[in-house]
């Protein structure tokens, strides 16, 4: 044994050469457990690991006697130590000490989180498995089963629906240019486009002004009739017919609601009554929404010169003579929109006399009475509303409104 003693900072430090250190590693004392070592089962093994454990040479036991020299199995250069650190082998851990590193090949992610056991589950499914089906299951429409005309119709409706979904006062001109590129040359396409525009207009009454301007742009659309090619079908006639059918549908809806109320009274169980009442309220709300939306859209079409004054007087006359809540609400909505244009006629005085009588006799609810009173006050103010238009606005209008708001606050302060 060659020992070199040197003084470092007034301390005697012993340094051993390489052969001496390798000899100490291979000695029996280095491989056996010390006698006074405490019993720590989580750290110390009772017997050295001789298999694929930790320790020198990655086996936890003594190195083979026939392996020597600067290069050993799985070598690490001239250090003479065979150990793969990536597999968790520690060349300086005795065979009786458990390693803190997990064994096995780990990736970078596995080395941080620990090795997870992977379970391979094999599921054998027989070929004759039958899935549950229902009578009204959704079936996709395959293009292979469609004719060329049907594909063209679907494409046109899809494009028009996309334009209507993006329609705002800000991008109206851009979408109008896109609409010009769509070819509408058959009655089926024209009827489909008319139906789409009408449904969007009555379900979104706040955008009625934008939809009416869009209809004015489509006013010149004309196509040959599918039944008689010599006749011409135009967009305006289809739109007026659709609005008229929806306006006349109110009486049908009233009858349906009366029938459902009669069935509701005959219901036996409380559960059936509750379900029928929910359905009735939902149907009444939808009918009211559609009728009010249709009336507002009719008023916007009249202001864009697409409907005549005669049609407006016919609608107002029918609405003012009714005692139905929905019709009176439609009357107030329509007259507040176009009253300034029609006030020159003597017929408007008759409309107000009809509704004034309803207020005096108290034949309607308080909500409708207040709506009629607001309409009377609006006429007294020369049809100038108290509040500005609450419909959609352009970005310039919103910016201008934001600039005016601070001055209004200063005035009130």
List the helices and strands and how they pair.
Layout: E1 3-8, E2 11-16, H1 18-26, H2 28-31, H3 108-113, H4 148-165, H5 172-180, H6 187-203, H7 208-217, E3 222-224, E4 232-234, H8 235-266, H9 270-303, H10 309-320, H11 325-342, H12 347-361, H13 366-380, H14 395-412
Antiparallel strand pairs: 1-2, 3-4
Helix pairs in contact: 4-6, 6-7, 6-8, 6-9, 7-9, 8-9, 9-11, 10-11, 10-12, 11-13, 12-13
Top keywords for this entry?
Serine Threonine Protein Phosphatase 5, Tetratricopeptide repeat, mainly alpha, two-stranded antiparallel ribbon
Task: Describe the protein.
- The protein has 413 residues and is mainly alpha-helical.
- The protein folds into two domains: 18-103, no CATH class; 150-383, Serine Threonine Protein Phosphatase 5, Tetratricopeptide repeat (Alpha Horseshoe), CATH 1.25.40.180.
- Helices cover 53% and strands 4% of the residues.
- It has 14 helices and four strands.
- A two-stranded antiparallel ribbon has the order 1-2. A two-stranded antiparallel ribbon has the order 3-4.
- Strand 1 and strand 2 form a beta hairpin.
